[in-house]
Design a protein that fits this description.
- This protein has 390 residues and is mainly alpha-helical.
- The protein is 41% helix and 8% strand.
- The protein contains 12 helices and 12 strands.
- It has helices at residues 2-18, 36-48, 53-60, 98-107, 116-130, 155-158, 165-177, 198-215, 218-235, 272-283, 316-328, 332-349; strands spanning 34-35, 74-75, 179-181, 187-190, 194-196, 236-237, 242-243, 246-249, 289-290, 293-294, 354-355, 362-363.
- The strands form 6 sheets. Strands 1-2 form a two-stranded antiparallel sheet.
- A hairpin with a 6-residue loop joins β11 and β12.
- The radius of gyration is 20 Å and the shape is globular.
- Bound molecules: alpha-D-glucopyranose.
- Alpha-D-glucopyranose (GLC) binds next to α2.
Length: 390
């Protein structure tokens, strides 16, 4: 029982420490701005604590929405130049987790701020109208938009197999120059980097499904079905039993590398066998299943580096999303294993941004707001007291 109190109290303390006026910064020193998908996960974590700031933070992460419906991936605490034409907010976007957050809040009986659902609908509409390929997949124009910034799946764009964070950072800024922006300052295309990743497509289809459930609008269920079908038709890899990314401008074979992203379409696939094959890898100790949650690359893969940013560590937000997929398929053992490892890892790592999946050692920013997701898994039922001896 002490452990349950530990992660709930710890999550509350982390969120409290990161709270600013209406939202949490991911970390006060390393990440002193608002980040879109981080705030969605903070909102889910506030909701788990029964705190009405859940609705405030969900509304805040949509505040920077442009008239077109586009939601920027950051809102800067102070003006910032060099990452696109906008200086008060990002010109790029990030995975659309807001619809799932709205669903969680609603299920927990926390009222949404006025206008939240309408803003979410406009946000998803934007993606469907401006970010779809002709074959019906959602594309991104910068690695920042994936949320998995330095994923090995992007290695072929930077043209080197030996990963270095500096090389990626230089490349990220080069890519801003290669981006085409619309008249409102939102990124719409790139000369060098366009890709339809499995994970962001899965998150978008999942978001459409959640919005359909919240609004009762069949249109969103139809869009969810169509996108899930396109993901299965165009991205399923029947040999590796995961979904790959589809390069559109640039890229190469690194887009089929095994990364945890490639399992995310289990959130939306209509195919039980594919879901089973994909989720089995998250239960396999020689695959993604580590003592402290899910590795970003399978154990033993030549690019697996358990302590390097996006090259192997476990991430709390990805653990949480794969947990949702496991629950969808009633893969109870897997769901419980993810929940248990995520709770333990939050405590061992000091609520880190990401951690070594083998040891739980905290990495990146500590503490980080989204580690509070440890409180979002259902509480372990209290064990009955053993009968007194004698
Ligand atoms: C890093 C992560 C990104 C996250 C941001 C703030 O850039 O790659 O997913 O949103 O940090 O936590």
């Amino acid at each position: 029982m002490r452990m349950i109190l530990g992660e709930v109290d710890g999550a509350a303390a982390v969120l409290e420490r990161c709270w600013r006026d209406g939202y949490c910064v991911p970390n006060p020193d390393v990440y002193p701005h608002l980040w879109l998908w981080d705030s969605c996960f903070h909102s889910i974590s506030w909701a788990a604590l029964g705190d009405p700031r859940a609705a405030v933070e969900l509304a805040s992460c949509l505040d920077a929405q442009l008239p077109s419906g586009f939601v920027p991936h950051m809102r800067y605490a102070a003006p910032s130049e060099g990452s696109g034409p906008l200086t008060d907010r990002s010109s790029f976007t990030q995975p659309p987790i807001y619809a799932h957050a709205a669903r969680v809040l609603t299920e927990r009986g926390l009222p949404l701020a006025p206008g939240t659902l309408e803003r979410i609908e406009r946000a998803l509409d934007y993606l469907w109208n401006h970010r779809m390929t002709a074959d019906g997949l959602l594309f991104i124009v910068h690695p920042w938009e994936s949320g998995s910034d330095d994923s090995p799946r992007f290695d072929d764009w930077i043209g080197r197999s030996a990963w270095s964070r500096l090389a990626f950072t230089i490349f990220d800024h080069q890519l801003v120059e290669a981006t085409k922006f619309d008249e409102e300052g939102a990124a719409v295309w790139s000369r060098e980097f366009v890709v339809a990743p499995a994970a962001i497509n899965a998150f978008a289809a999942h978001a459409a499904r959640e919005l359909g459930a919240l609004t009762g609008k069949q249109e969103w269920h139809r869009r969810a079905d169509e996108l899930a079908a396109a993901i299965d038709d165009l991205l399923w890899d029947g040999e590796q039993h995961h979904w790959v990314d589809k390069p559109i401008v640039g890229g190469g074979p690194s887009t089929v590398l095994p990364t945890l992203d490639g399992l995310m379409p289990a959130l939306v696939t209509p195919d039980p066998e594919r879901a089973r094959l994909a989720l089995a890898q998250a239960e396999d100790a020689a695959g993604y299943a580590a003592p402290f949650g899910l590795r970003f690359l399978p154990a033993g893969h030549p690019r697996y580096q358990p302590e390097q940013y996006w090259r192997g560590p476990a991430w709390p937000q990805l653990n949480y999303m794969l947990y949702q997929a496991a629950r969808r398929w009633e893969a109870t053992t897997l769901a419980e294993a993810i929940a248990d490892a995520s709770r333990r890892a939050a405590l061992v790592s000091g609520f880190a941004e990401y951690w070594n999946p083998e040891t739980g050692a905290g990495l990146g920013a500590i503490p980080q707001g989204w580690a509070a997701l440890a409180a979002a898994y259902p509480a372990i039922p209290a064990q009955p007291e053993p009968p007194a001896a004698g």
